[in-house]
Design brief:
The chain is an alpha+beta fold and 162 residues long. The protein has a single domain, classed as Cupredoxins -  blue copper proteins (Immunoglobulin-like, Sandwich), CATH 2.60.40. It is built from 3 helices and 11 strands. The radius of gyration is 20 Å and the shape is globular. The structure holds copper (II) ion. The site of copper (II) ion has 6 residues, from helix 3.
Length: 162
């Protein structure tokens, strides 16, 4: 009887710890492929406290970008970014590294908020830690060519949970 007792207690302790989910969630990393006109994967699920690394690869035939936010902003009736930028709204400044300069920039007015633009074959990395302020549903989108990419469906979703 005594011999059985220790493993059972340890088992219960392990279960309780697992149920409480104490501590920080495991870091997560996604490889996001950008093409015409999509992100793959197109849905990201993130948790508060998680350290996130997004490895971007533009394997398409056009320059692509990525922005994170909600409520699409229009300029001259064209989609031109987000009214609410996910990073600005949560006061988080992601760390960005990229290989390859975008061929053309953008009118700053049209693209307020955080953005990474990659030329053909360009790669980039975005790193940040998810905060409580990010909890909710966000969109990621590309507004290249006066919003043509956005209209063509270059949109993804970011779901942040506690
Ligand atoms: Cu695009």
């Amino acid at each position: 009887m005594k011999k059985l007792f220790v493993p059972i207690v340890l088992g219960v302790v392990a279960l309780v710890l697992a149920a409480c989910g104490g501590g920080t969630p495991e870091p997560v990393s996604y490889d996001i492929n950008m093409t015409e006109y999509a992100y793959s994967p197109e849905n990201l699920n993130l948790k508060v406290g998680q350290e996130v690394t997004l490895n971007l690869i533009n394997s398409g035939q056009l320059q692509h970008e990525i922005m994170f936010g909600r409520e699409v902003m229009k300029m001259d009736n064209r989609p031109a970014g987000y009214m609410v930028d996910m990073f600005e709204a949560s006061g988080v400044e992601p760390e960005v590294h990229q290989e390859g300069e975008p061929e053309h920039g953008h009118d700053e007015e049209m693209h307020e908020g955080f953005m990474v633009a990659l030329p053909i074959d360009g790669t980039g990395t975005i790193k940040f830690t998810v905060t409580e302020d990010m909890v909710g549903e966000w969109e990621m989108g590309c507004f290249e060519q006066d919003g043509v990419h956005y209209d063509a469906g270059m949109i993804g979703s970011v779901t942040v949970t506690k």
